[in-house]
Protein backbone atom coordinates (compact mmCIF):
# COMPACT_ATOMS: atom_id res chain seq x y z
CA UNK A 1 0.00 0.00 0.00
CA UNK A 2 1.24 3.49 -0.85
CA UNK A 3 1.31 5.62 2.31
CA UNK A 4 1.20 9.42 2.06
CA UNK A 5 2.15 11.10 5.34
CA UNK A 6 1.27 14.78 5.70
CA UNK A 7 2.05 16.40 9.07
CA UNK A 8 -0.06 19.53 9.76
CA UNK A 9 -2.27 18.78 6.75
CA UNK A 10 -5.46 19.66 8.63
CA UNK A 11 -6.03 23.16 10.00
CA UNK A 12 -7.53 24.29 13.28
CA UNK A 13 -11.34 23.81 13.43
CA UNK A 14 -11.85 27.45 14.45
CA UNK A 15 -9.70 28.94 11.70
CA UNK A 16 -11.38 30.85 8.88
CA UNK A 17 -10.16 29.52 5.55
CA UNK A 18 -10.67 30.80 2.01
CA UNK A 19 -12.42 28.59 -0.53
CA UNK A 20 -10.62 25.27 -0.85
CA UNK A 21 -10.11 23.93 -4.39
CA UNK A 22 -9.22 20.22 -4.36
CA UNK A 23 -11.21 18.41 -7.09
CA UNK A 24 -8.93 15.37 -7.13
CA UNK A 25 -8.77 15.00 -3.35
CA UNK A 26 -12.57 15.35 -3.23
CA UNK A 27 -12.81 12.27 -5.44
CA UNK A 28 -10.43 10.35 -3.17
CA UNK A 29 -12.39 11.50 -0.14
CA UNK A 30 -15.67 10.42 -1.74
CA UNK A 31 -14.64 6.78 -1.98
CA UNK A 32 -12.28 6.53 0.99
CA UNK A 33 -12.77 4.88 4.35
CA UNK A 34 -12.00 7.48 7.01
CA UNK A 35 -10.86 6.67 10.53
CA UNK A 36 -10.23 9.04 13.41
CA UNK A 37 -6.59 9.07 14.47
CA UNK A 38 -4.83 10.23 17.61
CA UNK A 39 -1.32 10.63 16.27
CA UNK A 40 0.99 13.29 17.56
CA UNK A 41 3.25 14.88 14.99
CA UNK A 42 6.14 13.05 16.65
CA UNK A 43 4.33 9.73 16.09
CA UNK A 44 4.23 10.41 12.34
CA UNK A 45 7.93 11.20 12.19
CA UNK A 46 9.02 8.27 14.33
CA UNK A 47 6.74 5.75 12.62
CA UNK A 48 7.40 6.67 9.00
CA UNK A 49 10.72 8.55 8.83
CA UNK A 50 12.99 8.92 11.89
CA UNK A 51 14.13 5.68 13.47
CA UNK A 52 17.54 6.92 14.67
CA UNK A 53 16.95 9.73 17.16
CA UNK A 54 18.92 8.20 20.04
CA UNK A 55 21.72 10.39 21.40
CA UNK A 56 24.87 9.60 23.40
CA UNK A 57 24.67 9.68 27.19
CA UNK A 58 24.55 13.15 28.77
CA UNK A 59 23.31 14.65 25.49
CA UNK A 60 20.04 16.24 24.38
CA UNK A 61 18.77 18.16 21.39
CA UNK A 62 18.61 21.97 21.26
CA UNK A 63 16.31 23.39 18.60
CA UNK A 64 16.75 27.09 17.76
CA UNK A 65 13.51 29.08 17.54
CA UNK A 66 12.17 32.53 16.94
CA UNK A 67 9.74 33.34 19.74
CA UNK A 68 7.47 36.36 20.01
CA UNK A 69 5.49 36.78 23.22
CA UNK A 70 2.22 38.72 22.99
CA UNK A 71 -0.40 39.67 25.54
CA UNK A 72 -2.34 36.44 25.21
CA UNK A 73 -0.22 34.10 23.11
CA UNK A 74 3.24 32.94 22.15
CA UNK A 75 4.11 32.80 18.46
CA UNK A 76 6.89 30.35 17.69
CA UNK A 77 8.71 29.77 14.41
CA UNK A 78 10.74 26.61 14.07
CA UNK A 79 14.35 26.87 13.02
CA UNK A 80 13.50 25.13 9.75
CA UNK A 81 11.57 28.22 8.66
CA UNK A 82 14.25 30.73 9.73
CA UNK A 83 16.84 29.99 7.01
CA UNK A 84 19.62 29.66 9.58
CA UNK A 85 22.95 29.37 7.79
CA UNK A 86 25.69 26.90 8.79
CA UNK A 87 27.92 29.85 9.63
CA UNK A 88 25.29 31.36 11.96
CA UNK A 89 24.86 28.01 13.71
CA UNK A 90 28.62 27.61 14.18
CA UNK A 91 29.01 31.15 15.54
CA UNK A 92 26.11 30.82 17.99
CA UNK A 93 27.18 27.39 19.25
CA UNK A 94 30.78 28.60 19.72
CA UNK A 95 29.51 31.65 21.61
CA UNK A 96 27.29 29.55 23.86
CA UNK A 97 30.22 27.23 24.60
CA UNK A 98 32.29 30.22 25.67
CA UNK A 99 29.38 31.60 27.71
CA UNK A 100 28.93 28.35 29.65
CA UNK A 101 32.66 27.83 30.13
CA UNK A 102 32.61 24.06 29.80
CA UNK A 103 29.45 23.40 31.81
CA UNK A 104 27.57 22.88 28.54
CA UNK A 105 28.87 22.06 25.07
CA UNK A 106 26.83 22.94 21.97
CA UNK A 107 27.41 21.32 18.57
CA UNK A 108 25.37 21.99 15.42
CA UNK A 109 24.00 18.81 13.86
CA UNK A 110 22.52 20.95 11.09
CA UNK A 111 21.73 24.69 11.11
CA UNK A 112 18.26 24.23 12.60
CA UNK A 113 19.15 21.42 15.04
CA UNK A 114 21.90 21.47 17.66
CA UNK A 115 23.15 19.06 20.30
CA UNK A 116 23.93 19.98 23.90
CA UNK A 117 26.18 17.90 26.18
CA UNK A 118 26.07 18.39 29.93
CA UNK A 119 28.14 16.94 32.75
CA UNK A 120 25.15 15.22 34.36
CA UNK A 121 22.53 12.78 33.13
CA UNK A 122 19.63 14.46 31.34
CA UNK A 123 16.15 13.29 32.17
CA UNK A 124 13.85 16.15 31.19
CA UNK A 125 10.20 15.20 30.72
CA UNK A 126 9.88 17.78 27.96
CA UNK A 127 7.96 17.34 24.72
CA UNK A 128 10.08 17.01 21.61
CA UNK A 129 10.34 19.59 18.85
CA UNK A 130 7.91 17.79 16.54
CA UNK A 131 5.04 18.50 18.93
CA UNK A 132 6.09 22.01 19.87
CA UNK A 133 3.08 23.59 18.16
CA UNK A 134 0.90 21.58 20.54
CA UNK A 135 2.65 22.39 23.86
CA UNK A 136 3.79 25.99 24.04
CA UNK A 137 3.56 26.04 27.83
CA UNK A 138 6.69 24.80 29.69
CA UNK A 139 5.28 25.47 33.17
CA UNK A 140 5.90 21.89 34.29
CA UNK A 141 9.52 21.88 33.15
CA UNK A 142 12.20 21.05 35.76
CA UNK A 143 14.19 23.89 37.27
CA UNK A 144 17.46 23.04 35.52
CA UNK A 145 15.67 23.07 32.14
CA UNK A 146 14.05 26.43 32.89
CA UNK A 147 17.36 27.92 34.01
CA UNK A 148 19.20 26.68 30.93
CA UNK A 149 16.42 27.87 28.63
CA UNK A 150 16.25 31.32 30.24
CA UNK A 151 20.02 31.81 30.19
CA UNK A 152 20.26 30.80 26.54
CA UNK A 153 17.34 33.04 25.60
CA UNK A 154 18.92 36.10 27.28
CA UNK A 155 22.28 35.41 25.64
CA UNK A 156 20.75 34.93 22.18
CA UNK A 157 18.61 38.06 22.50
CA UNK A 158 21.66 40.31 22.76
CA UNK A 159 23.82 38.55 20.14
CA UNK A 160 24.90 40.73 17.17
CA UNK A 161 23.64 38.13 14.67
CA UNK A 162 20.08 38.91 15.73
CA UNK A 163 20.43 42.64 15.11
CA UNK A 164 20.23 41.91 11.39
CA UNK A 165 17.59 39.20 11.65
CA UNK A 166 14.60 41.10 12.98
CA UNK A 167 11.75 40.22 13.09
CA UNK A 168 12.90 36.60 12.68
CA UNK A 169 15.67 36.54 15.23
CA UNK A 170 17.06 33.34 16.70
CA UNK A 171 16.09 34.18 20.26
CA UNK A 172 15.23 30.90 21.99
CA UNK A 173 16.25 27.27 22.28
CA UNK A 174 13.97 24.32 22.93
CA UNK A 175 15.86 21.59 24.79
CA UNK A 176 14.47 18.08 24.48
CA UNK A 177 15.47 14.49 25.10
CA UNK A 178 15.58 11.97 22.33
CA UNK A 179 12.16 10.26 22.42
CA UNK A 180 11.86 6.55 23.14
CA UNK A 181 12.12 4.36 20.06
CA UNK A 182 8.92 3.32 18.31
CA UNK A 183 8.19 0.53 15.89
CA UNK A 184 8.52 2.03 12.44
CA UNK A 185 6.64 1.28 9.25
CA UNK A 186 8.67 -0.90 6.89
CA UNK A 187 8.64 0.24 3.27
CA UNK A 188 10.54 -0.24 0.03
CA UNK A 189 11.49 3.47 -0.06
CA UNK A 190 10.56 6.81 1.47
CA UNK A 191 10.31 9.91 -0.72
CA UNK A 192 10.62 13.02 1.43
CA UNK A 193 11.45 16.71 1.48
CA UNK A 194 12.34 16.58 5.20
CA UNK A 195 15.68 17.53 6.71
CA UNK A 196 15.27 14.69 9.23
CA UNK A 197 16.55 12.09 6.75
CA UNK A 198 19.90 12.05 8.58
CA UNK A 199 18.06 10.39 11.47
CA UNK A 200 16.77 7.52 9.37
CA UNK A 201 18.18 4.16 8.30
CA UNK A 202 15.40 3.68 5.74
CA UNK A 203 15.78 3.80 1.96
CA UNK A 204 15.41 7.57 1.64
CA UNK A 205 14.86 9.22 -1.73
CA UNK A 206 14.30 12.90 -2.58
CA UNK A 207 10.65 13.83 -3.09
CA UNK A 208 10.10 14.97 -6.69
CA UNK A 209 7.96 17.97 -7.58
CA UNK A 210 5.04 15.76 -8.53
CA UNK A 211 3.75 12.21 -8.26
CA UNK A 212 4.68 11.36 -11.85
CA UNK A 213 8.29 12.07 -10.88
CA UNK A 214 8.07 9.64 -7.97
CA UNK A 215 6.48 6.98 -10.18
CA UNK A 216 9.32 7.37 -12.68
CA UNK A 217 11.96 7.23 -9.92
CA UNK A 218 10.44 3.97 -8.66
CA UNK A 219 10.49 2.51 -12.17
CA UNK A 220 14.14 3.50 -12.66
CA UNK A 221 15.17 1.97 -9.32
CA UNK A 222 12.92 -1.07 -9.74
CA UNK A 223 10.95 -0.20 -6.59
CA UNK A 224 7.34 -1.29 -6.16
CA UNK A 225 5.41 1.98 -6.01
CA UNK A 226 2.69 0.27 -3.98
CA UNK A 227 5.18 -0.43 -1.17
CA UNK A 228 6.53 3.09 -0.75
CA UNK A 229 5.94 6.07 1.52
CA UNK A 230 5.66 9.74 0.58
CA UNK A 231 6.45 11.91 3.61
CA UNK A 232 6.04 15.61 2.89
CA UNK A 233 6.57 18.63 5.13
CA UNK A 234 4.85 20.89 2.62
CA UNK A 235 2.20 21.87 5.16
CA UNK A 236 4.40 22.10 8.27
CA UNK A 237 5.51 25.72 7.87
CA UNK A 238 2.83 26.79 5.43
CA UNK A 239 1.86 29.93 7.36
CA UNK A 240 -1.42 31.76 6.91
CA UNK A 241 -4.74 30.46 5.62
CA UNK A 242 -4.33 31.88 2.11
CA UNK A 243 -0.91 30.28 1.69
CA UNK A 244 -2.38 27.02 2.95
CA UNK A 245 -5.18 27.14 0.35
CA UNK A 246 -2.69 27.86 -2.45
CA UNK A 247 -0.35 25.08 -1.29
CA UNK A 248 -3.25 22.66 -1.06
CA UNK A 249 -4.45 23.47 -4.60
CA UNK A 250 -0.91 22.93 -5.88
CA UNK A 251 -0.57 19.60 -4.07
CA UNK A 252 -3.97 18.54 -5.40
CA UNK A 253 -2.82 19.07 -8.99
CA UNK A 254 0.69 17.67 -8.58
CA UNK A 255 0.02 14.68 -6.32
CA UNK A 256 -3.62 13.88 -5.58
CA UNK A 257 -4.75 14.12 -9.21
CA UNK A 258 -2.19 11.60 -10.55
CA UNK A 259 -2.70 9.38 -7.50
CA UNK A 260 -6.43 9.29 -8.24
CA UNK A 261 -5.72 8.58 -11.91
CA UNK A 262 -3.46 5.66 -10.99
CA UNK A 263 -6.11 4.28 -8.63
CA UNK A 264 -8.66 4.44 -11.44
CA UNK A 265 -6.28 2.68 -13.86
CA UNK A 266 -5.44 0.00 -11.30
CA UNK A 267 -1.69 0.69 -11.28
CA UNK A 268 -2.12 1.69 -7.64
CA UNK A 269 -3.95 -0.88 -5.55
CA UNK A 270 -4.43 0.91 -2.24
CA UNK A 271 -3.52 4.32 -0.88
CA UNK A 272 -3.50 5.50 2.72
CA UNK A 273 -3.25 9.19 3.63
CA UNK A 274 -2.21 9.88 7.22
CA UNK A 275 -2.14 13.04 9.31
CA UNK A 276 -2.50 13.77 13.02
CA UNK A 277 -6.31 13.77 13.21
CA UNK A 278 -7.49 11.35 10.54
CA UNK A 279 -6.44 8.46 8.34
CA UNK A 280 -8.15 7.65 5.08
CA UNK A 281 -7.75 4.54 2.97
CA UNK A 282 -8.97 4.05 -0.59
CA UNK A 283 -8.62 1.11 -2.94
CA UNK A 284 -8.67 0.94 -6.73
CA UNK A 285 -11.97 -0.97 -6.54
CA UNK A 286 -13.69 1.65 -4.38
CA UNK A 287 -14.39 3.89 -7.39
CA UNK A 288 -17.17 1.54 -8.50
CA UNK A 289 -19.31 2.59 -5.52
CA UNK A 290 -21.13 5.09 -7.73
CA UNK A 291 -23.84 5.71 -5.14
CA UNK A 292 -21.47 7.52 -2.80
CA UNK A 293 -21.97 11.26 -2.80
CA UNK A 294 -19.21 13.67 -3.73
CA UNK A 295 -17.56 15.34 -0.74
CA UNK A 296 -15.91 18.75 -0.50
CA UNK A 297 -12.76 18.94 1.60
CA UNK A 298 -12.85 21.88 4.02
CA UNK A 299 -9.20 21.78 5.13
CA UNK A 300 -10.12 20.80 8.68
CA UNK A 301 -11.24 17.19 8.61
CA UNK A 302 -11.62 14.27 6.23
> What integer value in Å does the Rg equal?
21 Å
Rounded to the nearest angstrom, the distance between the terminal CA atoms is 19 Å
Low-confidence stretches: none
Return the structural class. Answer: alpha/beta
Spatial strand order of the main sheet:
2-12-11-1-10-8-9
Strand content: 15-25%
Number of helices: 6
Task: Write a short abstract of this structure.
This protein is α/β, with parallel strands linked by helices and 302 residues long. It contains 6 helices and 12 strands. The longest helix has 25 residues, at 241-265.
Question: Could you explain the architecture of this structure?
Answer:
- By secondary structure, this protein is an alpha/beta fold.
- It has two domains: 2-51 and 184-288; 59-176, no CATH class.
- It is 27% helix and 21% strand.
- It contains six helices and twelve strands.
- The strands form two sheets. Strands 2-12-11-1-10-8-9 form a seven-stranded mixed β-sheet, covered by helices on one side.
- A hairpin with a 4-residue loop joins strand 3 (59-69) and strand 4.
- It is elongated, with a radius of gyration of 21 Å.
- The two termini are 19 Å apart.
- It comes from Simonsiella muelleri ATCC 29453.
Amino acid sequence: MLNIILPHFLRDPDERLPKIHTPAFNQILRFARVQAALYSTADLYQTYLCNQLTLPEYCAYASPLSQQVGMNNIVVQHGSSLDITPNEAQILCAGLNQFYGGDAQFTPIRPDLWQIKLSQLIDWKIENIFNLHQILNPDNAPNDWLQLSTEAQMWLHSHPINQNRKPCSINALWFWNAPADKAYHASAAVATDSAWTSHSSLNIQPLPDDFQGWRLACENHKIDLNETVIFSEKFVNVGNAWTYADTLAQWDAQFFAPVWADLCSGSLKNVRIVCEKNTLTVSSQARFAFWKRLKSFDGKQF
